[in-house]
Amino acid sequence: MDSKFNIHMLNELKAQHLSGADILGIWDSNLRIFNLPQVNVLPDLIHRCSANYDPCQRAVLSPSGSILFHITPEAINEMLYFHTAKPLAPLSMMDLLKKAGKLSSTQIIRINQLFVEPSSEAVRTPPIGRVYFNDLGKMLVDLISYVLGYRSCEDADETILAIMSIFSPGMPPAVHYDYAAYITNKIHEQLMNLEREKVFRYTSYIYHLFLFYQPDSF
To answer: For the chain, where are the E strands, in sequence order?
Structure first.
């Protein structure tokens, strides 16, 4: 696996933006905002949050019952200082699968031209092995995988390609997705089902919500 640490990826994206090389507008999109620095897996913390999670309030509570932090799009956007007047499109796995099923051969070819190594002889269709992507493609796959809760080393399936398809040279992204709403819904689902499924993929978000809303505790 050769995925970059968060800070390295953001530095590269910013450098491309400042040099004028970011012709796809990735730096100006809201996708990179939701890529938080990774932290070590903290299973005890996550299980405590799950045990003290109030799904009605969408909040993690302290042992005394006070709210430590909410798990809502508003709470995440406030933590990330993300404010925009642009309309944000809803995002769900069902929406991505529908969009992926409608990707045309022209869109697949354009994704190959933008993000796949030119040495590849054939047009790659999903899932596309990570080894076939160029540096920009790998970076974008990592950004998308992080938001969707995938492992960054996974191959790019049709859902990842569906988001990659919104980027075109010389134009802003065709869609600005509401990534915060998607992430909070996934955190809610995973906290509710943690005991059964034993899976939680947004530890960084829990850690940073703690740091932002309970700084005195640290």
So the answer is: 53-54, 59-61, 67-70
pTM: 0.91
Q: Give residues with Cβ within 8 angstroms of 83, minimum separation 6.
A: 77
Distances from the Cα of 6 to the Cαs of 1, 34, 150, 175, 187, in angstroms? 14, 11, 15, 23, 20
Structure tokens at 198: 């034993």
3-state secondary structure of 192: helix
- pLDDT tens for 43-66 read 899 999 999 999 999 999 999 999
Type and span of the H or E element at 73: helix 73-79
Q: Provide long-range contacts, Cβ within 8 A and 24+ apart, for 71-77.
A: 71/184, 71/187, 71/188, 71/191, 71/209, 72/184, 73/178, 73/180, 73/181, 73/184, 75/184, 75/209, 75/213, 76/34, 76/180, 76/183, 76/184, 76/205, 76/209, 77/180
Strands (E), 11-76: 53-54, 59-61, 67-70
Tokens of 211: 């740091």
